[in-house]
Specification:
With 557 residues, the chain is of the alpha/beta class. It contains 25 helices and 15 strands. A 6-stranded mixed beta sheet has the order 5-4-1-3-2-13, sandwiched between helices. The protein has a 6-stranded parallel beta sheet with strand order 8-7-6-9-10-11, covered by helices on one side. Helix 1 runs parallel beside helix 6. The longest helix is centred in the first third of the chain and has 22 residues. The radius of gyration is 28 Å and the shape is elongated. The termini are far apart.
Amino acid sequence: MVFLSILLLALAFLVGTLPLGHWLLSRRGQDSRLSSAYNLGVENMVRRVGLGAAVGSAALDAAKGFVAVLTASALGSPELCVLSGLSAYLGHLNPPRVLYGPLPPRGRGNLVLLGVFAALNVAGGLSLWLTLTPIVVYAAVLGLSGYVSLATLAGLLAFALLAAFSPLALVAKLGALGLLGAAAWRFKENLGRVLDRTEPRLGDDVPMEGKRPDEVLAAFMIHPLTIEDFWQTRRFAWMRPLVERGLLSEAAVRSVAASLRPMKIGELHGIRTVGGQSIRAYLLSSPLLPEVFRDDPALATRRAIEGAKLARELGASVFGLGAFWSVVGNKGLDVQEAVPQITVTNGGAYTSGTIKAAIPGILSHFAAGGRELSQATAAVVGANGVVAFGIARTVAPQVRRLIMIGRDLERLERSAVSLRRANPGTEIVTSTDYATLREADLIFTATSDPNPVIFPEHVGPGTWIFDEGRPADVHESVASLPGVRVIPGGVVRPPGGMTSSVDLHFGDGAVPACLAETLILTATGEHHRKSLGPQTLSENINFFVEQAEKLGFEVVD
């Protein structure tokens, strides 16, 4: 009897693992990963695969739960039927790779549960009130909240409580509790989205690529710049008082952050181009702190690839890499290669374009303040990089002396040779010593360092600093020096009055240029203009500057 029971439970698990819906959609040329109501909502799934395929897939999932319990009922044990329902549900949520290979992740499994409850009443010996009440609770909570995940957990909680007070044996009560636990683990990301208010409700108009001609959807990957940013999302805010009271260490928080896969934490609303096109943008995050990008680039690349897959599953057409994400995976090349189904961009072209547009204004304002630009000394920090070297190339003809600062002196010298040939009237020097910055009247900085690199001891009185670094290269204390002006670079205001559920640290209604590039790329559909790798084409820089003006994007100076 025990052996037969174990055999039936194993059979129930195998029935639950059957990828029937996946096979059905695959036969119709559909990718179930991209056609999942779990990611896109029921309406979008029906729109993408058709009503017949959607109903057929749903019926097959319900049949798995029903057949698993019906088979176990042959032994006449209600307790075994409950455990078989749990086995089928676990099999549906966790199909083993050894049997089917890398299948797409399963959805919520609600239809499997519906089949389980139907069979528990019809063949499993459980009373109508014990099997129907969870469904009624599910419907009530869904109607009140609109959240499928909350409704499912409420229904399973009702079942677990009813089972606890029923005459069922302990093993069945534990099985009911197991259903609740399995669902809670499956819905942990959905619950986080509910807390962050980014989870769509049933009936919401969820955006999707190609759904409406006047609306496009982008996704953009961000990360916390400091541990304080980690508390922005409600799903993690509860940790803050524990850290402040010493009950949880910052090291533990950082470890948790490094273990988390990408998640949707926010959305940009209200972006509307001059032509009336609406741009929706999901903010995704794997909350790696800046030092992780330096210490474990392989992990960062893996998370960026996972983020690109999530963006595609959510219906976006373009995936942007922001802040330190923009340099992982060979500046996005490896991410694009791993996920060719979505356009990936590191935002470098429009970032360069905003700098190119901003520098003449900065130099003009500097000269208008009574400073003689042709006699000034300018410094460029991070000049080994593409962006900073572009700044050096723009500034060199207009100043008397240019200091190029970077980590690799040999590379700096090679770059300086070309600048000296093009600008024979400008003295160009190279250095790895930040102390030389005190000689500069103007400082331009664009490094990829996760921490500030310019401090008060590096800056002379009255210096103007253009800080393109993200996170900022200039320590906040520098701004308090007499006459010093710190100008943030690469800040853009999208058209239409944008609002964000997450503080991006660029001011109200403003975004970094790399995010703006993602939005422009999505709006224009010119995906071949994407920025990938270390090289940035001049024609692409000009394209984004021109399109930004046409669409209504404004550079903030």
